[in-house]
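Fold this complex.
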Amino acid sequence: MSQYAGSGPTIFDPMTLPVDDNVNKYTFCVELKGSQWFLQKGKMIAYYGSMEFNGIGHGRLDRLVRTSFHSPLHASDWVVADGSGKMLLADRAFDVNAYDLEDANMTIRSGNLLAFQPSLALKQSIVPGFLTLIGTGKIVAASSGPVVFMEPPIRVDPQALVGWADCPSPCHHYDHAYMTGLMGGLRAMTGIGGASGEEHQFEFVGAGTVLLQSSENLMPEQATGVVPHEPGVPGGGGVPTGPSQQAGAPRLPGQLGDLQRRFGL
Amino acid sequence: MTFTEINSKMIQATVIPGQRLYSQRGAMLAYKGDVSFTPNIQGGQGGVMSMLGRRVANEATPLMTVEGSGTVMFGHGGHHIQIIELTGDTLYVEADRLLAFEGTLQQGTMFMGSQGGVMGMVRGQVTGQGLFTTTLQGRGAVAVMAHGGVFEVPITPGRPVHVDPQAYVAHHGDVRNKLSTALGWRDMVGRGSGEAFQLELSGSGAVYVQASEEKL
Amino acid sequence: MFRLQGSKVLAVDMTGDAVKAKNGSMVAYDGQMAFKKMSGGGEGIRGMVTRRLTGEQMTVMEVRGQGTCWFADRASEINLVNLQGDKLYVESSNLLATDAGLRTGTTFTGLRGASQGNGLFTTTVEGHGQAAIMSDGPAVVLRVSRQYPLTVDPGAYIAHQGNLHQSFQSGVTFRTFFGEGGGEAFQIRFEGDGLVYVQPSERNTIAGDV
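Structure:
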């Protein structure tokens, strides 16, 4: 009658549940004492105490929204949890972790952001699909596989990128070294041998931290809001600018895309 | 050891000039230093014959050569990774479970049908994995992926091990495999095909079984 | 007899006895084993109707023999529960294996979360012995006591034991939760004395996957 965790799994009650910390790799516990947290809809799995979950933009908490949200969001994706008690958050058995920001900034892919304290300001990043959180407070993020922290200089597969803190936003790196020479020419012209799938990465330099997940599974994107249609605003202006529009788009083997154009093939 | 485990789903490999690594295409998550990733037309040291073998086998897992000087992080689909060290023996592994392996290993393909005649062919039909398995031989490390991780079951003479063909990942040692039907198993209607048969492994070695009956 | 090999594989050492397990969940065995398909849901007309309604999910097999048998199901996490004469209620699709000596039955729990097709049936397990339940991610066990009732998202609920009373509450604005996979406009409230098992995921459908 042996079980792998000693005499049995740990049984939790409101006293023993951790405060604002992981219960296990996939579950996070948040304590509310008459306070609020923003969270993605549907990510609460259980709670002790009395809590209310209200959609953003549905009345009472407008002032909170005004100070913390700076992005025209689709209101139905986020809720505000308000009350007293302990609440468990989880997301499809993905790894969840909390990050503490102290007068700092962190940019994270929208699909990976699970919850955050209203003391942080949420803004849309210039890099499409990413959100930037600024200030002091806690963020809870989900990832496909545990998060690994690395320091620049580093090149990262776009699908493995979760976010970054402090360092400048990344630039695109195209590896077309293998396209040169005879074999390279053959590949380019005929498509035989395909592509390695590693032709494009995000490159980070500077001082800061890069967060990676252990997989190229993208968490489904959450709407980050519409980019204003103004000239000079990337992604919002008139004519779409070449490769930068495809940031993060998975490249299929054999598909040479803009490299083809670059070589005039 | 060239491969180190960062966590259960990500490994790190140090690449040194003159030493190559092979990995599944698209499995690189990040890298530092000066490393190049070249798709393999041949996929390893197999040469033309091996390529032909692969064509016939309809192996859908393209490889890439990793060389240069730096550190590379590999992972794929959030699957669990197991590092297996080979010390001269041969590892038989499903091609789509191979994440990365050292260039010092000799790569080949084996026709699994040869061990068991008709039943071997049926195995290919049944598991949908094709009739071929990749073999790796020599000294070096191999990183293998599986859905949910693998556990090892030793095979000893006189005590054969039966495995659900869809849960089979790899095996090493002096092992014979054959497909058989277990009494009563035939009327098990499982979720997919393959439940009517089991893979019987006998001899001396070990088999790696994954914690799921789902293909990757 | 039941032991965990890692957290996603159940190993059962048998010496001539039997274990009942979810059909299709066996990944390997050594020694001699015999398998018999059993129909879940119960006997007679009621059993037949139950099987019809639940489809493949309820099919159970009995494994008997000498040696070790390994069970796993789509890399789900496995939790062992020891029953000492009490009763465990578990979502039918979350039950992996039970000691053959335990008595299993089915209760129809109604249209809880019917929008996702889950929660129609609960399996009851009682007696003395071990049961293995599965979850999408390691389960968290929460104690419910008179002063601390618990509210649970139906998609995260796996099992409970003890003296608990369930009720449904919709203390949330319907609009708020509408849209996530059909929406879970209800929550389950547990009161009394007992334990509730929840998984870190809302994936809990008869089909198995989102």
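The helical segments of chain B are 47-57, 117-127.
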